[in-house]
Specification:
Layout (H helix, E strand, L loop, with lengths): L4 E3 L1 E6 L2 E6 L4 E5 L14 E3 L17 E5 L26 H14 L5 E7 L7 H17 L3 E8 L6 H9 L2 E6 L4 H7 L9 H14 L4 E6 L5 H11 L3 E6 L6 H4 L8 H20 L2 H8 L5 H8 L14 E4 L4 E3 L11 E4 L14 H4 L1 H4 L4 H4 L4 H8 L7 H19 L3 H9 L13
Parallel strand pairs: 6-7, 6-12, 7-8, 8-9, 9-10, 10-11
Antiparallel strand pairs: 1-5, 2-3, 3-4, 12-13, 13-14
Length: about 450
């Protein structure tokens, strides 16, 4: 990688003011543009760094502590955007008990000296295999206790099979859920129908209501298709009762880049949502509404950027895929990410064999990917989601332009918020535990 010219600053304008992001320091401030001159500035905001390199922090293969366990590769819904080919991931099937128990033993061994392991039940729809799930929980608790480890569980579900028995079990065993649901009835029925084509909203909603009565802090995730209004989705999800709402743009299928049929994503309205989100942050901070801020932080795409800039923190990896996180298919094959299950090129091992082939996932895109090194958001998105990259551009290291624009705007709006915080605002955020600060947060 040629490090002779690296962008150090990003200057942007918003609402009649000028702001600066110091990329290497991961800090932001309101700027008097006439008084600012970039050191050794060149066209495009780059500056030479003679003899200086930005080496990747030494990344050794970390212990695997988090496993997405595919109890089944089948589903009772037929979501229009499903990256798993209807939940089958290329090879329909169910996990048997022998494979499940071997996966637990494998995870315990891989976790080395780490004291906590995490198991996510995945599919397809994992509650199609609820009896197996119950046996796995009992086995994992027993085996982890024998070696002095704690085991934590969660599951991703479409909520179609949640009933009193299931909910009671989840609550008793402290299994947290992520519910995939797309918000308004018209979107849910259109995007997440049953396999027979019927809408799912009216069937699922009572299950969700029952779940939220028992576990009010249940998480949710929605997929935004064709430039859907994020704010309307959030409002619908909050009306249902979810406190924390995650929204992600739809991704093309993994082979769409080959067929030149990638889904188009109108992100302009998403920009408007981001800017509206930023104004809400500042409004609630100035009103000193701690409870509303905590709720906002659970669903805001800006939260991580604000936290990174307040703490001058650099992100070197978008997520833990291939590092401490893996996925295990119904046959025991291991993949670096659950979204790639069934795709041979991304298989890194098998639970019945020794060794993991994950060297290519131990390098930071923020410092080694040429596209990312030249981007001012390199320490924020750190190369982005590898599935988005592969499905849009054919390579896990090549991010799609529209998603890059999205992350850059999110970082700018996070910088806008941080730059307008007073000392008293920051004290309030720390006292209310809205953000965790590095030591001495008030010594500016």
């Amino acid at each position: 990688m040629n490090n002779e010219a690296v962008q150090r600053y990003q200057v942007f304008h918003h609402k009649g003011h000028t702001y600066l992001i110091d990329i290497e320091e991961m800090s932001a401030k309101l700027l008097n543009e006439t008084s600012f001159t970039e050191p050794n500035s060149q066209d495009g905001g780059f500056y030479p760094v003679p003899g200086q390199a930005f080496p990747t922090p030494a990344i050794e293969a970390p212990p695997v502590v988090h496993m997405s366990l595919f109890l089944t590769q089948s589903c009772n819904l037929k979501c229009t955007y499903c990256y798993g080919e209807g939940g089958e991931y290329g090879a329909r099937g169910d996990m048997d008990e022998k494979t499940a128990f071997q996966a637990i033993d494998w995870l315990i061994k891989q976790s080395a000296d780490m004291k906590t392991i995490k198991i996510k039940f995945f599919g397809g729809e994992p509650f199609l295999k609820f009896p197996l799930m119950k046996r796995i929980v009992a086995y994992a608790k027993k085996k982890s206790a024998e070696v002095g480890k704690k085991v934590m569980f969660n599951a991703t579900t479409n909520a179609t099979l949640l009933n009193d028995e299931v909910i009671a079990f989840l609550k008793e065993k402290s299994i947290s859920l992520l519910v995939s649901f797309d918000g308004p009835k018209e979107l849910q029925d259109k995007q997440r129908p049953f396999a027979n084509g019927e809408g799912s909203y009216d069937i699922i909603l009572p299950n969700i209501k029952r779940l939220l009565e028992a576990v009010p802090d249940t998480l949710s995730n929605s997929v935004a298709v064709d430039g859907a209004n994020h704010q309307k989705i959030k409002e619908a999800m909050h009306d249902i009762g979810f406190k924390e709402v995650g929204i992600i743009p739809v991704s093309p299928l993994l082979d769409d880049h080959k067929k030149n049929e990638a889904l188009t994503r109108n992100i302009q309205c998403t920009f408007e949502d981001i800017e509206q989100d930023a104004e809400e942050w500042l409004s609630l901070i100035r009103r000193r509404d701690g409870e509303a801020l905590r709720n906002l932080g659970k669903s805001s795409e800006l939260r991580r950027g604000i936290s990174d800039l307040l703490n001058n923190r650099k992100e070197y990896f978008f997520c833990g895929a291939g590092l401490g996180v893996v996925a295990v298919s119904v046959t025991g094959d291991i993949y670096f990410c659950h979204r790639f299950v069934g795709t041979e090129d991304y298989r890194i091992g098998n639970i019945f064999e020794n060794g993991l082939n994950r060297d290519r996932y131990l390098h930071s895109p923020a410092l080694e990917n040429e596209t990312c090194v030249s981007c001012f958001a390199r320490y924020y998105c750190a190369g982005g989601c590898k599935y988005d990259n592969a499905s849009s551009c054919g390579s896990i290291t090549t991010p799609p332009d529209d998603i890059c624009e999205l992350y850059r705007r999110r970082l700018e709006m996070a910088a806008y918020i941080v730059s307008n915080l007073t000392r008293e605002d920051r004290i309030f955020l720390a006292e209310q535990d809205i953000f965790q600060f590095k030591p001495c947060p008030f010594d500016f």
